Amino acid sequence: MRVLVVEDDADLNRQISTALTDAGYVVDKALDGEEGHYLGESSPYDAVILDLGLPVLDGVSVLEKWRRAGRKMPVLILTARDRWSDKVAGFDAGADDYVTKPFHMEEILARVRALVRRSAGQASSELTCGPVTLDTKGAKVMVNGMGVKLTSLEYRLLEYLMMHMGKVVSRTELVEHLYDQDFDRDSNTVEVFVGRLRKKLGVDVLHTIRGMGYCVQPPGNAD
Ligand code: CA
């Protein structure tokens, strides 16, 4: 899952980005509204954390521009304490949720998890596909009740596919959601990771749809 953090307080931006990275997200950062707007318009994000008080272009304007351009990613706004009118303006501009500063990082993480899950149409934080269970809260994967050790990239790959269970996800879409903007993107490496992941899971849930991409489905549901 790929998340954008738009926050002009460099320390706070770093703290949020580090917490998200530690939780297994791929994170891009912007320190002003213009840069944030550009990234949000040019890259696909699974969620955005957007401060409202930003230099160059304020957060509400950034959000309005995204929504007007048809960008639908879930957006969590950061507002100052006691500024109820900011929350109203944020929601009217298209925000999905808000957190008031100062906040606990755990709250940000929990809200981002909920936003990503809801926008993918998943109600529970635990995703199940036949014998495979993925706990998005603890970032743990079990197969037939036994824990499976995955690298962070393998986990991200499986999480993305399980969030979109039953749908065919193209290689390009995977690359866009699994790597940050600075990563050297070679979509052939996805094939390698899929192969390794399939081997580690040891069950038939991760299908290659030739010429189209990949799809996670319970065993026996393929084709
Ligand atoms: Ca600010």
Write the layout of secondary structure elements.
Elements (H helix, E strand, L loop, with lengths): L1 E5 L3 H13 L3 E5 L2 H10 L4 E5 L7 H10 L6 E5 L4 H10 L3 E4 L4 H15 L6 E4 L2 E4 L4 E4 L2 E3 L3 H12 L7 H8 L9 H14 L4 E4 L3 E4 L7
Parallel strand pairs: 1-2, 1-3, 3-4, 4-5
Antiparallel strand pairs: 6-7, 7-8, 8-9, 10-11
Helix pairs in contact: 2-3, 6-8
Describe the overall structure.
With 223 residues, the protein is α/β, with parallel strands linked by helices. The chain contains eight helices and eleven strands. It folds into two domains: 2-119, Response regulator (Rossmann fold, 3-Layer(aba) Sandwich), CATH 3.40.50.2300; 126-216, Winged helix-like DNA-binding domain superfamily/Winged helix DNA-binding domain (Arc Repressor Mutant, subunit A), CATH 1.10.10. The protein has helices at residues 10-22, 33-42, 59-68, 84-93, 105-119, 152-163, 171-178, 188-201, and strands at residues 2-6, 26-30, 47-51, 75-79, 97-100, 126-129, 132-135, 140-143, 146-148, 206-209, 213-216. It has a five-stranded parallel beta sheet with strand order 2-1-3-4-5, sandwiched between helices. A four-stranded antiparallel beta sheet has the order 6-7-8-9, covered by helices on one side. α3 (59-68) links the parallel β3 and β4. α2 (33-42) runs parallel beside α3 (59-68). The mean pLDDT is 93. Calcium ion (CA) binds at residues 8-9, 51, 53-54.
